[in-house]
Design a protein that fits this description.
OB fold (Dihydrolipoamide Acetyltransferase, E2P); alpha+beta; about 140 residues; 5-stranded mixed β-barrel
Length: about 140
């Protein structure tokens, strides 16, 4: 009888501790994946030129869970996904890109969701230059 009482006591203690942790807001999720500027690796910085073949807005880790603007860029070496910035920032700056735009992008190479891409630090279109991030990947166009 003592063993069953001991086991029942341990089960009750564990249940009370689990309830307390839950009420206090402790969660046991795995650490979050890298997002935003943490994805930007200056040692992977490249310059690419190409023609915009598509413009999309979708949630991605580069935009830290916000709706981000992305370009599909056709280069001489293939197609890349260019991660620009959160959509709210580009909308606030009234900055729009279109298929057919010829651009040059300076940014860090990355591979997200199975696609080769570049997290844009700077983009040049014709005689216009836009700087999205500093040399560490931190967004500069913050609103």
């Amino acid at each position: 009888m003592r063993l069953s009482s001991l086991i029942l006591g341990i089960v009750c203690a564990v249940a009370v501790i689990a309830i307390l942790l839950s009420v206090l807001g402790v969660n046991f999720h795995s650490p979050s994946v890298l997002q935003g500027s943490a994805l930007y690796n200056p040692s992977n910085e490249i310059t690419v030129k190409g023609i915009v073949t598509g413009v999309e807005e979708f949630d991605c880790p580069v935009s830290e869970g916000e709706l981000g603007v992305h370009l599909t860029l056709k280069t001489t070496d293939g197609t890349l996904q260019i991660h620009l910035a959160p959509a709210r920032i580009l909308q606030g700056q009234k900055l729009v890109f279109y298929p057919g735009d010829q651009v040059q992008v300076v940014g860090a190479k990355t591979r997200l969701s199975g696609k080769n891409g570049v997290i844009a630090r700077e983009l040049t279109r014709g005689n216009e230059s836009y700087i999205f991030r500093d040399s560490t990947g931190k967004l500069l166009m913050v609103q």
